[in-house]
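Support request, please re-run this one:
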Amino acid sequence: MPSNKDSHVKLNNKNYEIWAVLIYAILMHKGLAEVATRESPMPTTGPNSTAGKAWNCKNTEAHAEIILVVETDQLAYISAQTAAEIWTELECVHYAQGPTQLALCQKFLTIKKKKGQLMSQWIADV
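Re-run finished. Output below.
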């Protein structure tokens, strides 16, 4: 694992964009990024072939790397068996087009009326 202190950032409900860049860099450094991002799918020769065994080994390692850099509350979003499927699950939860339900809930819970803001405008924002 790279020695950069920031590479140990764990995924939570607020840092997906930063986390994704950092974990991708870690996976690239270890030669696992192509497995986690579907650039290298399971070989059609089967899991018992030399290529299939090598892919399974990389997938297992990438799977573990991703799991080890998420907060425990994020494990609820992970149900897939391959690193690429886990990557997609986390991306769907945290990086959907437009605000996700999680992001909207976070925004609702932390919204505050700004100084000088009209009450009607604040209510509209809420």
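The chain has two domains: 5-95, 97-126. Residues 16 and 114 are 27 Å apart (CA to CA).
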